[in-house]
Every structure is written in C-alpha cells, then in structure tokens.
Design a protein that fits this description.
5 helices, alpha/beta, 147 residues, 19% strand
Length: 147
C-alpha cells in the first residue's frame, strides 16, 4: 500500500501529560506518537509527525504535505475554534484531513463546540483520549483505501 500520512499537532499539545491531566490524561505526545507510529507501520503506512505552537508553521506544514502526503490527521488544539488561516490551508491543498481531539469538545465550554476546520475536513473524532488519534488514522485509511 505504502501510504504516507502526516500527524499534525497544534498549540499546547507538546504539554500533554503535564497539562490539565484530568482533561487530557497523563500520557505524553511522544508516548502516543510512538504507539501510533508502530500501529501505522503494521498497516504499511509511513507516519511523519510535526507539532508546533505557531499558526504559521502549521500552515506551512499543511502546504508541504501537498508534495508528499496522502492525508493528514490534525489536532489543531485551540486553533480549531477560530483559525481561518488553517481552514484555508486545508481547503487549499485539497488533501483529506481528519480532525481529532483528545477531549469531547462538545461536553466542554461553549467556545469549544464550534470548529471552523470541520467543514473542510473529512470528519471529526473527539472524546476518546489517546484513541482519538488511532481512530483518526483508521478513518483516514478507510477513506484512502476505498478511493
Ligand atoms: C483539544 C481541544 C481544544 O479545545 C483545546 O484547545 C486543545 C486540545 C483536544 O485535543 O481535546 O488544545 O484539541
């Protein structure tokens, strides 16, 4: 199969394991990423990862992905709720993107209920902790393999 996927993480996700553990759990991003990479490898998928706290760097990573990736798994953190620049980048490259969230954003503050990215994404997975990333990869592969 040989698919290539970008795992993209936005602001504050580098603090996973430290940050608000009651909401996001005690596991680090490195821990989740390592397991997800092994999970991807077993499916003959190359998973490249990038995390940034900066909106511009995330826009650049999405643009770059156009040259090599078949799709993107994206946890945009708080940018999810207001970044038109990220939305335009996703729409601009035309790659399938699965939006993922560790927490169930709909069970939280009202400002987290709205995603400006969701309308240009394939779909959204939220609320399954670390498994949101695995489910996101599964969803993307289902889409890519059937298409
Ligand atoms: C998050 C949810 C966002 O509302 C929040 O700003 C985050 C993490 C999640 O994974 O649950 O930074 O994307």
């Amino acid at each position: 199969m040989g698919l290539k996927i970008l795992l993209l993480n936005g602001p504050n996700l580098n603090l996973l394991g430290v940050r608000e553990a009651s909401v996001y759990g005690s596991e680090t991003l490195e821990g989740i990423t390592k397991d997800l990479q092994a999970y991807a490898e077993r499916r003959d998928v190359e998973l490249r990862t990038f995390q940034s706290n900066s909106e511009g760097a995330l826009v650049e990573a999405i643009h770059q992905a156009r040259t090599w990736a078949n799709g993107i798994i994206f946890n945009a953190g708080a940018y999810t709720h207001y970044s038109i620049a990220l939305r335009d980048a996703i729409a601009g490259v035309g790659l399938p993107v699965v939006e993922v969230h560790i927490s169930n954003v709909h069970a939280r503050e009202e400002f987290r209920h709205k995603s400006v990215l969701a309308p240009v994404c394939l779909g959204v997975i939220a609320g399954f902790g670390r498994w949101s990333y695995f489910l996101g990869l599964d969803a993307l592969l289902r889409h890519l393999i059937k298409s």
